[in-house]
């Protein structure tokens, strides 16, 4: 066995609705990390780099109808990218995960299952990463799980876990809230204050991590998701409502206040020629109207069965913004920064400055925006499609943040002064306080991209650490109850899945895992075949004499209902060989000496025994149950050559006359014949 590597690697494929991105993470093996006394009470230190990531388009969900193509046409470049950056000798010990989000959640169940199986098969055939369990490593994760992973990643990078005293927000609070918005869904995750946590304990998720010294860290987090409230799905719902408010049969052109003036687009968002004559949306660039039109998409009028609710009638505990400070990623970052901050030095978000810049941009003529794109006013990445979509996304984001979630409008009081730079104030405050404003959009923290995939890998690396005590509970998350709840989720099907210290897996455990935890579809028939081999081997190893007793314990008829086959088998093993042969002869064979029976025996079952004369009555009575009064005892005949069948087995045909029973004998049994090859006692 080779030397254990000092570094561990992990790969996560984020399979989103618009594309799949591969992330690679690296951390010290715990045996090495423990040598640094200064970091013992900290989580494993993960490292990643921009060049370790790669994204391909479109999303895996587009292969729902052609699952056989997802590997060569989608996953291949991502796997090759990962293999290029991970040492070859570390690949077999590197876990790989493909976790699909909102795009896959919209597919029918059968398409999901078929596609996931195809993905797992392709990864196993093309790369030799550690993938012990397809169900654990290749899956569609719920929005709540995605939000929890994001919460872990944000707090891990900000230092809320490792340095709680440096991030004290008051009321014993030292963690940050997390907001994420993709194309199809949006998530929120935060730890409520003590009062709300007690009031809504059943709504919280219990998360358990483990530091390098093996000690647990527990957090109670509220997580929920809003499927259909991502930027793209919200736009789809918005266009449907817009079209419904007009008579499409008589209206060729529908005014849209959420796209710049003069642009024409199709209902599905494709930019059209100015001279188009097909059904289209015409941009009016009316920002105030856009804000009013997008507000109903929050569906705040839906009944709330479990108060309080924020959006779509979904329960969320009351948020205490004095201690809950939120970090927003994905669309929260892109929509607030790619256009509206790119041309400015100050990057921090505040409501007043942001809304002013959005209004100025979105009320321009489309021709002016096209010139700005050509001049790269908003950077190289901003193209026509991005510029066309950003006005709706900005209005949706503002409504979600402030009217949906309830984030305070920082800087709103300064909005009346056009010369006031509220963003600059927030930026400086952020430097002084460390993300203590109610909301801050981020892309990177400490030069590391904030992605929920990091949260997944932090959890995995944490679970890889042996616990400090044997009775410590495992790393993972589940319902907020004592012990290990039924819905508890381990980080993977990986190396450490229990709360006991890490130790080598025994051969028994390995066999158990192969038989019961493998994803092989034929493990049950294999298990039965394996047991059959063991039984046959044990049968031939137990000796000829014992084999004979085993055979007859199953083959001889029984006259007692109370005697089970298991009992007979056990009894035959415990009996002395001297009396074992009596098990061949059940008194029902010749109860009165007149019945004739035919039985087959293997000649090997008969061995030469004591050739003495008569048996004592005590010997026989000890070996056989007592007979009914007046009944005759069994007698043993000489095994003659003419009683052998073609298979070499003895054919026993018995009758009163053939056995030559001596009815005149006082004890009712015949004497043993002198020429008999053996005499059973």
Automatic annotation (TrEMBL):
<keyword id="KW-0812">Transmembrane</keyword>
<dbReference type="Pfam" id="PF01150">
    <property type="entry name" value="GDA1_CD39"/>
</dbReference>
<feature type="compositionally biased region" description="Polar residues">
    <location>
        <begin position="624"/>
        <end position="633"/>
    </location>
</feature>
<comment type="similarity">
    <text>Belongs to the GDA1/CD39 NTPase family.</text>
</comment>
<keyword id="KW-0472">Membrane</keyword>
<feature type="transmembrane region" description="Helical">
    <location>
        <begin position="524"/>
        <end position="543"/>
    </location>
</feature>
<feature type="compositionally biased region" description="Polar residues">
    <location>
        <begin position="662"/>
        <end position="675"/>
    </location>
</feature>
<dbReference type="InterPro" id="IPR000407">
    <property type="entry name" value="GDA1_CD39_NTPase"/>
</dbReference>
<keyword id="KW-0378">Hydrolase</keyword>
<dbReference type="GO" id="GO:0004050">
    <property type="term" value="F:apyrase activity"/>
</dbReference>
<feature type="region of interest" description="Disordered">
    <location>
        <begin position="612"/>
        <end position="681"/>
    </location>
</feature>
<keyword id="KW-1133">Transmembrane helix</keyword>
<protein>
    <submittedName>
        <fullName>Golgi apyrase</fullName>
        <ecNumber>3.6.1.5</ecNumber>
    </submittedName>
</protein>
<feature type="compositionally biased region" description="Basic and acidic residues">
    <location>
        <begin position="634"/>
        <end position="660"/>
    </location>
</feature>
